[in-house]
């Protein structure tokens, strides 16, 4: 069995397979071992795997297989596996683990990983995990939990390698060697502080280790130095890491004193979660939807948005109802009108997706809003004219009515132009009103394009064809 996070050499080939998904043969072997209650076989299958792959397997098997697996092999679940688990599954897995296994697992984790593990658990499970920690670690976790949810204080690790700003490289190296047991498992910078414990800069380990011992640390500081308030929203933290190419950044309290450190791995997890949430919200399936969710939970997440879609569909139908006589006289209108609405909806979704992402990355601002609106207007107009020509010809050839071709052509131009504008203006307006544009924009844009599309097409048909 090969580590799933390494290139896999398939039998009979010399080329590594860059596919890091779980092999189906592994899943089948695991299922057979669980059914046979063969702990030795499970051990053999799991031993080469990375904790992330074990977590993936736990997420992919059925609830019954998961319970049977953990009943046989709970001792193999360590802290890294728990931290890699999907948030929606952690509570279930933790509930299946014996107290002694859970205690040993959480003791292996850094305090920031423990915070991530416990912050969304029920009080009794949270108390069990906190009770497994020693006094120092428990105090660090409880202090982190006192910060607002989704803030830098929840994201940071309190263990920071720091030094007085007047120290030399030699003093720092000697200090690190003398206190090697107290160092974080991973760190990238030494933070320099003034006598009040306020960060004044940081030095990368590479620059420090390549400098002579007598060199002052303050002469080696990096220009990328940024200080992050403990109460800052984690999305803003992730944006700063991405924008300024940070590897780590010190966290300070309200008085500017050093209280922790955030590293790039935690910031990238936040960015990944934010992108995933935006995608799910745009699709209207709930920001916390997961493959491991139960039927009732998935239904509760999707039903409200399906109801919103029903309301918007009824609104569009009311517009159509105003033109019943026209549709009865020219049946071709009923055939062609879904095309106009569908093209507008797709064009609006394209513009909407770009706008929501630009708002999230702070690329769409007041300064460039008019330029972006002008661009989307131009794109909508050009696309509208192009497809107007196409549909005009199709309408004429299909139904032998040049007037019908001109009507659908004009409606196409109008709806694609409005779709581009709505795709930009709706998320911007929602963002100004402090409403998440990813969550609500889709329903509004779809309604606009449907209503405008039907009204433009049918209205023009009444004016010019009847």
Topology:
Blueprint (H helix, E strand, L loop, with lengths): L7 E2 L6 E2 L6 H12 L3 H8 L4 H10 L2 H11 L5 H6 L2 H10 L2 H9 L3 H8 L4 H9 L3 H11 L6 H4 L6 E3 L4 H10 L10 E5 L5 E6 H5 L18 E2 L4 H11 L3 E5 L5 E6 H20 L11 H27 L2 H6 L2 H29 L8 H31 L2 H31 L4 H29 L1
Parallel strand pairs: 3-4, 6-7
Antiparallel strand pairs: 1-2, 4-5, 7-8
Biggest sheet, open or closed, and with what strands and sense?
3 strands, mixed
The poorly predicted ranges are: 1-18
Question: How much beta, percentage-wise?
Answer: 5-15%
Q: How does the overall form come out from the CA principal axes?
A: globular
CATH architecture of the largest domain: Orthogonal Bundle
Proportion of helical residues? 55-70%
Oligomer: single chain
* Assigned CATH class of the largest domain: Mainly Alpha
By CATH, the superfamily of the largest domain comes out as SLC41 divalent cation transporters, integral membrane domain
Structure description:
The chain folds into three domains: 142 residues, MgtE N-terminal domain-like (MgtE N-terminal fold, Alpha Horseshoe); 122 residues, CBS-domain, CATH 3.10.580; 171 residues, Tetracycline Repressor, domain 2 (Orthogonal Bundle), CATH 1.10.357. The protein has 21 helices and eight strands. The strands form three sheets. Strands 3-4-5 form a three-stranded mixed beta sheet. A three-stranded mixed beta sheet has the order 6-7-8. A two-stranded antiparallel sheet has the order 1-2. A hairpin with a 5-residue loop joins strand 4 and strand 5. Helix 1 runs antiparallel to helix 2, helix 19 runs antiparallel to helix 20 and helix 20 runs antiparallel to helix 21. The longest helix is centred in the C-terminal third of the chain and has 31 residues. The N and C termini lie far apart (74 Å).
């Amino acid at each position: 069995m090969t580590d799933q996070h390494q290139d896999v050499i398939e039998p009979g080939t010399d080329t590594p397979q860059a596919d890091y998904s779980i092999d189906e043969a592994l899943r089948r072997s695991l299922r057979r071992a669980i059914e046979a209650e063969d702990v030795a076989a499970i051990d053999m299958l799991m031993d080469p795997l990375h904790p992330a792959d074990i977590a993936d397997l736990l997420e992919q098997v059925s609830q019954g297989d998961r319970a049977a697996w953990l009943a046989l092999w709970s001792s193999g679940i360590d802290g890294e596996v728990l931290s890699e688990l999907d948030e929606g599954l952690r509570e279930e897995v933790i509930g299946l683990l014996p107290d002694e296994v859970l205690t040993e697992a959480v003791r292996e984790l850094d305090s920031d990983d423990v915070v991530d593990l416990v912050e969304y658990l029920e009080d009794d499970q949270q108390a069990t995990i906190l009770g497994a920690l020693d006094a120092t670690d428990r105090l660090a976790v409880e202090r982190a939990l006192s910060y607002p949810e989704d803030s830098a204080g929840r994201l940071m690790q309190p263990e920071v390698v720091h030094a007085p700003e007047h120290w030399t490289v030699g003093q720092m190296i000697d200090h690190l060697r003398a206190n090697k047991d107290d160092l974080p498992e991973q760190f990238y910078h030494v933070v320099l502080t003034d006598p009040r414990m306020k960060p004044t800069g940081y030095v990368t380990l590479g620059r420090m280790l390549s400098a002579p011992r007598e060199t002052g640390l303050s002469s080696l500081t990096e220009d990328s130095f940024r200080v992050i308030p403990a109460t800052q929203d984690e999305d803003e933290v992730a944006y700063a890491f991405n924008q300024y190419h940070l590897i780590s950044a010190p966290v300070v309290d309200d008085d500017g004193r050093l209280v922790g450190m955030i590293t790039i791995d935690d910031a990238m997890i936040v960015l990944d979660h934010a992108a995933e949430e935006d995608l799910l919200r745009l699709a209207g399936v709930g920001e916390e939807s997961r493959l491991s969710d139960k039927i009732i939970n998935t239904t509760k997440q999707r039903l409200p948005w399906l109801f919103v879609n029903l309301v918007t569909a009824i609104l569009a139908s009311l517009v159509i109802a105003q033109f019943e006589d026209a549709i009865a006289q020219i049946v071709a209108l009923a055939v062609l009108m879904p095309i106009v609405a569908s093209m507008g909806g797709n064009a609006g979704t394209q513009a909407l997706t770009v706008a929501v992402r630009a708002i999230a990355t702070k690329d769409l601002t007041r300064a460039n809003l008019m330029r972006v609106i002008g661009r989307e207007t131009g794109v909508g107009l050009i696309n509208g004219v192009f497809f107007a020509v196409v549909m005009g010809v199709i309408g004429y050839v299909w139904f032998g009515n040049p007037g019908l071709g001109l009507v659908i052509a004009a409606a196409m131009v109008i709806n694609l132009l409005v779709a581009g504008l709505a795709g930009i203006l709706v998320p911007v307006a929602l963002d100004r009103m402090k409403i998440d544009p990813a969550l609500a924009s889709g329903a509004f844009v779809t309604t606009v394009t449907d209503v405008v599309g039907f009204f433009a097409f049918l209205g023009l048909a009444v004016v010019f064809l009847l």
